[in-house]
User: Which sequence fits this backbone?
């Protein structure tokens, strides 16, 4: 259904888009815990070279959903049916969380997923964003969190 991509190809520049989702869903432990209409904008701008400094801005007050309005990611790369934006420190306050450990361990040997030595994540700051496209048009954006493990999807 989603566009297929060659896995683990770093996107070094040009990952910029605006996405206007109409709804959100929050999942935790495989269960839908919240959902609703959304009338905002998700803006992605890759500001740095060599995949560094990818800024995602969520333009709408959504404190009740629980996500920081401006997010900075260190790395962008492909993975089968999605594009990942990730921040993967060697040491962090979520290093021992199963969802984070699973994400880090699911990369092939030789692919350097570590993006920095250390980071302290905020409760509403995701470590990864997944971007799904159909015919190169963004149709879904999701965020995975470590401190309060959950998945926030916008479609």
Assistant:
């Amino acid at each position: 259904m989603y566009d297929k991509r060659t896995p683990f190809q770093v996107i070094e520049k040009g990952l910029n888009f605006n996405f206007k989702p109409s709804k959100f869903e929050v999942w935790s432990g495989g269960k839908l815990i919240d959902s609703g209409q959304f009338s905002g904008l998700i803006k992605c701008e890759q500001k740095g070279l060599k995949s560094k400094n990818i800024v995602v801005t969520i333009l709408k007050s959504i404190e009740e959903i629980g996500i920081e309005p401006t997010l900075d990611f260190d790395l962008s790369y492909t993975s089968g049916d999605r594009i990942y934006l990730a921040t993967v420190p060697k040491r962090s306050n979520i290093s021992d969380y199963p969802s984070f450990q699973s994400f880090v361990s699911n990369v092939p040997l030789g692919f350097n997923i570590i993006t920095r030595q250390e980071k302290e994540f905020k409760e509403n700051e995701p470590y990864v964003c997944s971007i799904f496209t159909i015919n190169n048009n963004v149709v879904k954006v999701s965020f995975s969190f470590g401190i309060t493990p959950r998945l926030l999807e916008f479609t």
In short: The two ends are 14 Å apart (CA to CA). The helical segments are 98-105.
